[in-house]
Amino acid sequence: QLQLQESGPGLVKPSETLSLTCTVSGGSISSSGFYWGWIRQPPGKGLEWIGSIYYSGSTYYNPSLNGRVTISVDTSKNEFSLKLSSVTAADTAVYYCARQKGYSSGGLWYFDLWGRGTLVTVSS
Amino acid sequence: AIRMTQSPSSLSASTGDRVTITCQASQDISSYLAWYQQKPGKAPKLLIYAASTLQGGVPSRFSGSGSGTNFTLTISCLQSEDFATYYCQQYYSYPPLTFGGGTKVEIK
Questions:
Q1: What integer pLDDT is reported at residue A107 of this predicted model?
Q2: Which of A107, A94, A97, A88 is nearest to A34 (CA)?
Q3: What is the least distance, in Å, from the CA of B46 to any CA of chain A?
Q4: If you measure CA to CA, which chain A residue comes closest to B46?
Q5: Distance between CA atoms of residues A27 and A11, nearest Å
Q6: Nearest residue of B to residue A99 by CA position?
Q7: What are phi and psi of B82, to 5 degrees?
Q8: Distance, CA of A116 to CA of B39 (rounded, Å)
Q9: Which residues touch A38 (CB under 8 Å, ≥6 apart)?
């Protein structure tokens, strides 16, 4: 069955760029009817949506992140990636990638499959 | 942004109890609401979407109801594996997609 796996550095210095990749296995990232999203969860806190991408490259981002987010997709590698620039300690969180039901013209719905998550700590 | 408010933030219950969690949206979201269960150290798991549609494989003791601004998640007969934190999420208006603050269900 389809699985998602996050990968990337677990420690990032303040002011630098956080970079994570989500590899999709057991299915195609180019399947219609799905977006691919990033969600984060600071330690002991709730869930925050970061952004989502369709395999065509159409993206939606959370405005609260003030333009610091870039999500890209590589269909040849069946993976999508997150870059978060100018990080601070407030960006310390478990970062999840997830498959999101939706449609290409801009319907973002719920997250039906999640990766296991990866903890990223921002510290010098 | 649509604000999602869950109550209570935590509750204590016993196995076999009926548990109800509420989620209130700051504006009408029709039925564009999902519920997730998260256990410690694990990723969230989708339970319900479209306010009341059970995701495949989810036990029938879970049910969801509501529309507009007021929603409920009910666990009809709490099992030991149901002790977890539950989140609601709206997908009516975005960006941003927004989650509730969570409800932790603990053992009494």
A1: 87
A2: A107
A3: 6
A4: A112
A5: 30
A6: B46
A7: -90, -5
A8: 12
A9: A20, A22, A49, A50, A51, A52, A71, A82, A95, A96, A97, A98
Spatial distance between the Cα atoms of B53 and A113, rounded to a whole number of angstroms? 16
Contact indicator for B4, B90 with CB cutoff of 8 Å:
yes
Provide, rounded to the nearest whole percent, the portion of chain A with pLDDT above 70: 100
Condensed to tens digits (0 to 9), the pLDDT of residues B1-44 reads: 999 999 999 999 999 999 999 999 999 999 999 999 999 999 99
Model pLDDT, residue B69: 98
CB atoms within 10 A of CB A32: 11
Q: What is the 3-state secondary structure (H, E, C) of chain A?
A: CCEEEEECCCEECCCCCEEEEEEEECCCCCCCCEEEEEEEECCCCCCEEEEEECCCCCEEECHHHCCCEEEEEECCCCEEEEEECCCCHHHCEEEEEEEEEEECCCEEEEEEEECCCEEEEECC
d(CA A9, CA A118): 9
DSSP B58-91: --TTEEEEEETTEEEEEESS--GGG-SEEEEEE-
Residue A27 in contact with partner chain B when CB distance is under 8 A: no
Tokens coding A121:
């700590």
Using the Cβ of A44 and the Cβ atoms of chain B, whether some distance falls under 8 Å is answered with no
Token pair for B40: 């410690």
Q: Which of A32, A36, A37, A38 is nearest to A105 (CA)?
A: A32
